[in-house]
Write a structure and sequence with these properties.
With about 400 residues, the protein is mainly alpha-helical. About 50% of the residues lie in helices and about 10% in strands. Helix 3 crosses helix 4.
Length: about 400
C-alpha cells in the first residue's frame, strides 16, 4: 500500500455511501492543495467541512443512543470515542453533547447541515436553552439562525446574550451573579521554582484588570522601542526588541504589584469610568454592555454605582456635543462617541479594538466631508492606510436623518 493510499473501512459497518465518500476523499487528497487555495475554494472547503462535521455529529448521536459503545466495556460514548478514536476528552464530550442538542434545535441543525453556520453556533444556542427559555427559543429559533448566518461569531454571541436576558430576565441576573461568584485567581510555585497561575474574572473586573495590564504593557513596549531605536540608529523590528510580548505582559503584571505596594495607605483610589451602552427598550430593544462589547445584566452594575463614574453618550441626531464639523481631526466627545459606537475596526476582515484604531472620515475631509459622527468610522492603521491607497466601493456620505 502506498503512503498516499488511505485505509478503506471494510465489513458490515462500511456502507456503500461511506466507501464512496472515502474514495472521493482519497481523490481529493491526491490533489495539490495549492490548486484549491483561491478565495472561492477556501470558502467552499470551510462550508463543506462544517457539513461533514454535522454529519459526523448526527452519526455520533445515533451511536450514543444505540449503546454499541458499551460492548467494549466503555462507561460512556465519550469514553469510547476518546479511547478508540484518540480524541481529546473535551472533543469527545462536545460531539456527544452537540448530537443531543440537535434534536432540540431543528432549524439550527438544518443550517449546520447546509454549512451556513458552524458547530460553535450550536454550542452557543444550546447553552442558552434551559427549562425557562425553551419555549421562547422554539419561537425565536428562526430569527436567531438568520442572525447567525449573517453576523460574525462574536457579535452574534452578544445578540444571543441580549435574547437570553429578554427571554429570562431573572435568570440573566442570576447568571451574572453566578459568574461573579466563580471568580478565582491562583499563583503557585512549580518544581523548577517558576510560578504558574491563572485567573477567572467576571466581565467588569476582567475589563478593569485587562485595561490596566494593557496600559502598562504599552508603556513597556514604547520604552523597549525607544531603546532599540537609539541603539540601532533606525526604526527597529519587533524581533529586535529586548523583550517579547509575553515577557512584557509578565513584567507589566509585576509592575502592577510594585505600584500597588508602593501606594500610600491613605492614597485616593482610582474611580473607574464606566462606558455603558444603554438603549430605550421601547425604541431600540434592551441594551446594556460595556464599551468593549461585554453584555451585562443591569443588576450586575449595582455594586459599582457608589464607587465609579458613568459616561453618557448620545448617538441620536441633534442635541449632542460635537467638535466643529469643519475641524480637521476628531476630538473630544465626537471621537469618544465613535469609539464606543464602532468598538473595533469597521473593516469586514478586522477586529482591532477601538483603543488601537484611528478615526477615519468616510468622505475625506479634503473632499468636504464633515467631522461628524455620521461621517466617521474606526479603522486600524493598516486598513486606514489601505483605504487611502485603494478606496473601497460605496464610500459616500450617509443620507441626512429626517
Amino acid at each position: 500500500m502506498s503512503d498516499n493510499e488511505a485505509v478503506v473501512p471494510t465489513g458490515s459497518f462500511a456502507s456503500t455511501e461511506l466507501l464512496q465518500f472515502v474514495g472521493a476523499i482519497d481523490q481529493l487528497m491526491r490533489t495539490d492543495p495549492t490548486e484549491v487555495s483561491d478565495l472561492e475554494s477556501i470558502a467552499e472547503l470551510e462550508r463543506h467541512l462544517e457539513r461533514f462535521e454535522y454529519f459526523v455529529t448526527k452519526a455520533v448521536a445515533s451511536f450514543a443512543t444505540k449503546g454499541d459503545w458499551a460492548v467494549d466495556g466503555a462507561k460512556t460514548p465519550a469514553a469510547w470515542l476518546l479511547t478508540r478514536c484518540h480524541l481529546p476528552e473535551v472533543v469527545a464530550r462536545r460531539q456527544v453533547r452537540r448530537g443531543r442538542a440537535l434534536d432540540q434545535l431543528p432549524l439550527c441543525a438544518e443550517a449546520w447541515s447546509e454549512g451556513s453556520i458552524g458547530g460553535a453556533h450550536i454550542d452557543a444556542l444550546a447553552k442558552v436553552r434551559t427549562e425557562m427559555t425553551g419555549e421562547a427559543l422554539a419561537r425565536d429559533e428562526a430569527l436567531l439562525v438568520s442572525h447567525a448566518k449573517e453576523m460574525k461569531f462574536t457579535p452574534f454571541c452578544g445578540v444571543l446574550a441580549y435574547w437570553e436576558q429578554l427571554a429570562n430576565p431573572d435568570g440573566a441576573e442570576e447568571s451574572d451573579m453566578a459568574r461573579q461568584a466563580r471568580r478565582d485567581v491562583y499563583l503557585s510555585p512549580t518544581v523548577n521554582r517558576m510560578f504558574l497561575g491563572g485567573m477567572k474574572l467576571d466581565p467588569v473586573t476582567g475589563v478593569i484588570v485587562s485595561d490596566e495590564l494593557k496600559r502598562l504593557e504599552r508603556e513597556l513596549f514604547e520604552g523597549d522601542w525607544a531603546k532599540a531605536r537609539d541603539e540601532l540608529g533606525r526604526e527597529p523590528k519587533i524581533s529586535e526588541l529586548c523583550r517579547t510580548s509575553a515577557q512584557r505582559r509578565a513584567d507589566a503584571l509585576k509592575e502592577m504589584a510594585i505600584r500597588s505596594k508602593a501606594m500610600p495607605a491613605d492614597a485616593r483610589r482610582p474611580e473607574p469610568l464606566f462606558t455603558i451602552l444603554v438603549g430605550y427598550e421601547t425604541l431600540h430593544g434592551r441594551i446594556c454592555e460595556l464599551s468593549g462589547g461585554h453584555v451585562l445584566s443591569p443588576g450586575s452594575l449595582m455594586e459599582w454605582m457608589d464607587g465609579g463614574w458613568f459616561e453618557r453618550i448620545v448617538f441620536s441626531p441633534g442635541k449632542r456635543i460635537e467638535c466643529s464639523p469643519h475641524s480637521r481631526f476628531f476630538t473630544g466627545a465626537t471621537r469618544r462617541a465613535v469609539e464606543v459606537r464602532d468598538q473595533a475596526c469597521t473593516h469586514e476582515f478586522c477586529d482591532v479594538p477601538a483603543e488601537d484604531c484611528q478615526i477615519d472620515h468616510i468622505v475625506p475631509w479634503a473632499q468636504g466631508g464633515p467631522t461628524t459622527q455620521e461621517n466617521a468610522r474606526l479603522l486600524c492603521g493598516f486598513h486606514n492606510r489601505l483605504r487611502n491607497q485603494r478606496p473601497p466601493p460605496g464610500d459616500q456620505l450617509p443620507p441626512p436623518d429626517d
